[in-house]
């Protein structure tokens, strides 16, 4: 049996950016590192062993890898997987998508499938149910996607030259709960208005007009009006962001993390000032990054072997 040993580095992501609901993703400089090597039986754990994982067959990474093996009718050999994550779990920063992309890329390498980025994007988006975080973790940069049963189409923009201040609360918010508060449908008039706001957001991003982009973020009609009840400090932090010069403040993905898009090199100062008023949140200054999942060179892999 062929022996495998490699390490993947998968970026986390923020998504939606307000009205780009289930479509826009942005890779950030927080990573899930996955060391993979051949084994006699499956073993998946984190380096610090403090994170309790489900049984292997229920693990998100395993399920994504196994899905690929099923699709291509190949048997996935047992592997030892050791993970180390900088991405907070269940906080709206793409931890699930990173695990899914990592599982798909692992299966692609181990089974020697040579999948294209488009094929991997479709599998990841199908698995997660929406393409925003998945395409950002896979491709890097800012991704704008649409996903159907037939295909996933993605445009990749360069990583914007801004800072992102993330206010991370102590509580988790599962995506399932965050989706449960959304309406089943919008009226035709609401849908037209909501999509036009999203259109202007995208155009503003392409023109690097972050003042207008931030304004459009906060005008979202798709999910913020319904989810803000789940994150009570969103309105107050948004107002404070305006005072401090933030372009726009929104939920990261489904929340509960609140993110402010701010001018480059202003993130640390603005983060400190927000944190003084909201000490129950941990703040981090994030940067958009241009690359998606990467396989580390062999010499880097050896350094990470537990």
UniProtKB/TrEMBL annotation:
PROSITE patterns: GHMP_KINASES_ATP (PS00627)
Compartment(s) of residence: Cytoplasm
Pfam hit, one: GHMP_kinases_C
Domain GHMP kinase N-terminal: 59-141
Pathway note: Amino-acid biosynthesis; L-threonine biosynthesis; L-threonine from L-aspartate: step 4/5
UniProt-listed Enzyme Commission number(s): 2.7.1.39
Domain spans labelled GHMP kinase C-terminal: 202-277
Alphabetically ordered keywords of this record: Amino-acid biosynthesis, ATP-binding, Cytoplasm, Kinase, Nucleotide-binding, Threonine biosynthesis, Transferase
Keyword Nucleotide-binding on entry: yes
GO biological process: threonine biosynthetic process
Coiled-coil regions, chain positions: none
Highest taxon listed in the record's lineage: Bacteria
Reactions catalysed: L-homoserine + ATP = O-phospho-L-homoserine + ADP + H(+)
Binding site for ATP: 88-98
One Gene Ontology cellular component: cytoplasm
Function: Catalyzes the ATP-dependent phosphorylation of L-homoserine to L-homoserine phosphate.
NCBIfam families tied to this protein: thrB (TIGR00191)
Family (UniProt): Belongs to the GHMP kinase family. Homoserine kinase subfamily.
Name of this protein: Homoserine kinase
Species: Heyndrickxia sporothermodurans
Chain's gene name: thrB
């Amino acid at each position: 049996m062929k022996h495998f040993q490699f390490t993947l580095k998968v970026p986390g992501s923020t998504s939606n950016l307000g009205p780009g609901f289930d479509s826009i993703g942005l890779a950030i400089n927080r990573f899930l590192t996955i060391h993979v090597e051949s084994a006699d039986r499956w073993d998946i754990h984190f380096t610090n062993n403090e994170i309790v994982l489900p049984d292997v067959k229920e693990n998100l990474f395993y399920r994504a890898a196994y899905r690929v093996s099923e699709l291509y009718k190949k048997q996935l050999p047992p592997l030892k997987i050791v993970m180390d994550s900088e991405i907070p779990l269940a906080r709206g920063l793409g931890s699930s998508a990173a695990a899914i992309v990592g599982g798909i890329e692992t299966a692609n390498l181990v089974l020697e499938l040579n999948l294209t980025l488009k094929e991997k994007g479709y599998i990841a988006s199908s698995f997660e149910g929406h393409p925003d975080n998945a395409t950002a973790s896979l491709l890097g940069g800012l991704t704008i996607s649409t996903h159907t049963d037939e295909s996933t189409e993605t445009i990749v923009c360069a990583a914007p030259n801004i800072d992102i201040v993330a206010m991370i609360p102590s509580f988790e918010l599962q995506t399932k709960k965050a989706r449960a508060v959304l309406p089943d449908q919008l009226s035709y008039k609401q849908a037209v208005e909501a999509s036009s706001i999203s259109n202007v957001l995208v155009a503003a991003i392409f023109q690097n007009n972050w003042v207008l982009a931030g304004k459009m973020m906060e005008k979202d009609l798709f999910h913020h009006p319904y989810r803000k009840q789940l994150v009570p400090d969103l309105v107050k932090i948004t107002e404070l962001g305006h005072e401090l010069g933030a372009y726009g403040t929104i939920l990261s993905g489904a929340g509960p993390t609140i993110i402010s898009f701010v001018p480059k090199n202003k993130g640390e100062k603005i983060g400190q000032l927000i944190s003084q008023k909201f000490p129950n949140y941990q703040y981090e200054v994030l940067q958009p990054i241009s690359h998606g999942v990467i396989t580390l060179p062999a010499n880097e892999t050896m350094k990470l072997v537990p």
